[in-house]
Design a protein that fits this description.
44% of the residues lie in helices and 13% in strands. It is built from 13 helices and eleven strands. The longest helix is centred in the middle third of the chain and has 25 residues. α1 crosses α10, α3 runs parallel beside α4 and α5 packs antiparallel against α11. α2 links the parallel β2 and β3. An eleven-stranded mixed β-sheet has the order 3-2-1-4-11-10-5-6-9-7-8, sandwiched between helices. With 363 residues, the protein is α/β, with parallel strands linked by helices. The protein has two domains: 151 residues, Isopropylmalate Dehydrogenase (3-Layer(aba) Sandwich), CATH 3.40.718.10; 155 residues, Isopropylmalate Dehydrogenase (3-Layer(aba) Sandwich), CATH 3.40.718.
Length: 363
């Protein structure tokens, strides 16, 4: 296993990235290729006492920042650490690529340099939600606008991921919506709901409301990238607020600090459940070779976990299962054309503007 890591991307690069790579290397037999400014990398390694003897260092003097346009990865900054790392992966010189850099640029580069699985219209980011049971949110930030077909492909890819990575025989797939009834949501959600229900490649359980997702309503939660990113960051923020509030309660005075000692183990388990860094990075599902995005604010521990998750992903058959499922999407595309494109409205749903005009009402 050859792991390529862009150590120049992210808020805490390159020091925390290097520490994370070294920590991961101690736990695996994989070989590592770190990509970035070699002089800076070796200077930090010396200062931090990091042993890079197991690593190959590929020098690049260009870095893609969080403010850069996503297309710079294949245009103005083709010699950046991210671009070079993706090229190494595409050329087969590595088995998996990990970066904490600009998400848009990484996704664009993965799509244009590494390429999608044949038959997949849109790749998507799959993020494990901080909840009581693992739930994969897909898409969590790559595709702002989608079609019902894209959502179907997300569902199939997410199901394959949870099946292989979390040993779930038939992962339950839900569609993020503002109600559980079939008539809820915009026309996109209503048609997608019908399409997902008709698909025999997944175990679809119907619409899922946001407040039910953290409580095990489904194993795969499907949505567009804009909604998914807002939902994910809201959950991350609430999790931090919750953990901070609980910690505050136990540090108010001597008595509460004593109580904290009694529940230290339980609090540690709860913190682990809601800590997003525990789940590692987010895979770009639908890309033909493993590309994993670590959180932009990742510290060394989060980077280590992202690398370990990336290795498990690379060793799994997820991409093969996605490619196999993609062979059937053309048949589903034909079937989708027969699905009613004007789904029913809820009985209590307000009249449309056209109906109000027909009734002579002011709109």
């Amino acid at each position: 296993m050859r792991v390529i890591v862009d150590v120049m991307g992210g808020d805490n690069a390159p020091a925390e990235l290097l520490k994370g790579v070294v920590a991961a290397a101690k736990m695996t037999n994989a070989s590592y290729i770190v990509v970035g400014n070699e002089a800076v990398i070796r200077e930090i390694a010396t200062a931090e006492g990091l042993d890079l003897s197991r690593f190959d260092v590929i020098h690049t003097d260009t870095v893609i920042t969080m403010e850069d346009d996503p297309l710079c990865v294949v245009r103005s900054k083709k010699n950046s650490s991210m671009s070079v790392g993706l090229s190494l992966l595409a050329e087969g010189r590595g088995d998996v690529f990990v970066s904490a850099g600009n998400t848009g640029a990484l996704f664009t580069g993965a799509t244009l340099i590494v390429r999608r699985v044949r038959g997949i219209q849109r790749a998507a980011i799959g993020s494990v939600l901080p909840a009581t049971t693992p739930c994969l949110l897909i898409d969590s930030g790559a595709n702002v606008t989608v079609t019902e077909e894209h959502l179907l492909q997300f569902a199939v890819m997410g199901s394959a991921y949870m099946q292989k990575m979390f040993a779930l025989e038939t992962p339950r797939v839900g569609l993020l919506n503002n109600g559980t009834e079939d008539c809820k949501g915009t026309p996109l959600q209503r048609v997608a709901n019908t399409l997902l229900r008709a698909c025999d490649m997944i175990n679809y359980v119907g619409n899922v409301e946001g407040n039910a997702a953290p409580f095990g309503a489904c194993d795969v939660l499907v949505t567009d990238g804009f909604t998914g990113n807002v939902f994910l960051k809201t959950m991350e923020g609430v999790a931090k607020l919750l953990l901070g509030s609980v910690k505050g309660v136990f540090t108010q005075n001597g008595l509460t600090k004593l109580s904290a000692l009694l529940v230290k183990k339980s609090f540690g388990e709860m913190k682990k459940t809601f800590d997003t860094s525990e789940y590692g990075g987010a895979p770009f599902l639908g890309i033909s070779r493993p590309v994993v995005k670590a959180h932009g604010s990742s510290d060394a521990r989060a980077v280590k976990n992202a690398i370990l998750a990336a290795i498990r992903y690379a060793e799994s058959d997820v991409i093969y299962e996605i490619a196999r499922a993609a062979e059937h999407f053309s048949a589903w595309r034909s079937a989708a054309q027969n699905i009613e494109k004007e789904p029913q409205r809820c009985e209590k749903e307000p009249f449309s503007a056209q109906e109000k005009n027909q009734k002579g009402e002011v709109t």
